[in-house]
# Entry
Amino acid sequence: MTDTDAQQPENEAAAAPQPHPWQDLPAEQFRLLRLAPLPTDRHTGARPLRFVQFGRVERHSPEQSLLRLSIELPGQRVRREQNVLEVWADHRSREVRFGTDQGLQIEPANRGIGRFLVAQGVRWARQRWANYQVEGGALALKDIPSEEARQRRDHFLRAQGFEVEYQDLLQMKASYGAQSVSALLGEWNSERLQPVEIIEAAAMLQQADQKLHEQEVALCKLEQKNKLLRHEDSSLRFTIMCLVALALFQAGLLIWIATR
# Structure
């Protein structure tokens, strides 16, 4: 084997793209989010009251800045690409990019989480680089199962200030973008999703514990009342049996007297 053959694997390893040092950063700041109970949806099913954890981490350098937002579901695991939004700011080209080519994948769907994450990313970018351009991207049609889902996706983007454009009459090829970060809207439906502060969460836990204690006291009283009623019921049954026996004895006695 020649020296050239030995150096070839080393050159291929050196030429392989290295992962970004900020890739897969774990969250450093956490908040609690309350998902309000909503009527059952025919597509996504039941939507009960639920609490999830909102994670946040950001990094800055002279060339780039990153905001990574994530949602964790208690007792439930999701895929690596789900419930994550990354906002990248490139200071060299003065552009801001929201998300990846795979799009924003949210679980549970239709609970307001997607709009909340995008709104947080927009607010973060507007506070720092409102004059930066927004790097647009293509919208994949393969991930949209129906016309109704496509309309919901377009409404989601336009509600945040993005422009959605179609390149053909059949609406098969679409792209999204915006003139600048200042044109985006950092708003979400606060009736569906509310951030909960630590003191509020503590108050909620205290209130729930108090209600649980009150229910235990009420249950104990009901059990005592039930025992008393059972005791009275047993006494009544014994009395009725005695009266029935006495009535039968008297009836038998009267029959005996009548036949003598």
In short: Residues 197-260 form one domain. The chain has a mean pLDDT of 85. The CA atoms of residues 84 and 234 lie 64 Å apart.
